[in-house]
Amino acid sequence: MKNVKTVLGTVIATARLPSSANGNPRYEVTIKALNGDTVRAATKPDCTLGYEIDNPEFRRDVHAFEIGDHYRRQCIARVEVAALERTDRKALSWPDLWQHGLAKRDNGGRWYPAHPTTEAYIDQGGYRSPSRAYPNSYASPLLTLKFAKWLCENDRVLAARLGFLAVPREAQQEAA
Predict the structure, then answer these.
(1) N or C end of the chain: which has fewer CB within 10 A?
(2) In angstroms, rounded to a whole number, what is the distance separating the alpha carbons of residues 38 and 36?
(3) Of 115, 160, 110, nearest to 133 (Cα)?
């Protein structure tokens, strides 16, 4: 394997490729990196990853994918769960809500959740519906320390994209 690089991200799509000569499954995998890039790579022939890559855990959690050239084709050499740790970032700010698509406003200026994760948090919290008098009643809870902690526990992918989780500095130095 040549030109090996590590990509942190999640699987967003898999497409079945023809099986190997021994009958083992192969997939073409589309990976959404934490920096927003999209990477496509295939599983190597006769590799156990062909049996695992379609599992939901690869879509749920952040993984470190080692991708390199295998006979002139981008292939996944190794996959492991990415070790992420909390950063110094404490909570979201108002611009984060619309820049990252977490909340949206209606014509009356009332904020509503726009992302499945923020909808789940608002639904379980029992917050009052927005009104003319309280247009921020759904958005304000998203700016708290409590939401940041909940996000790191329940949606590690979104938490990493928002800057609450990052790869430890020691792991970055080892990869370089």
Answers:
(1) C
(2) 7
(3) 110
Contact indicator for 115, 139 with CB cutoff of 8 Å: no
Nearest CA among 7, 1, 4 for reference residue 70: 1
Nearest to 148 by CA among 161, 160, 159, 137: 159
Beta bridge partners of 9: 33, 63
Of the chain, the end-to-end C-alpha distance in Å amounts to 18
* Share above pLDDT 70 across residues of the chain, in percent, rounded to a whole number: 95
Q: Give CA–CA dist 3/5, Å, rounded.
A: 6
In this structure, which amino acid lies at residue 140?
S
Whole-prediction pTM value? 0.69
> How sure is the predictor about 173, in pLDDT bands with cuts at 50, 70 and 90?
very low
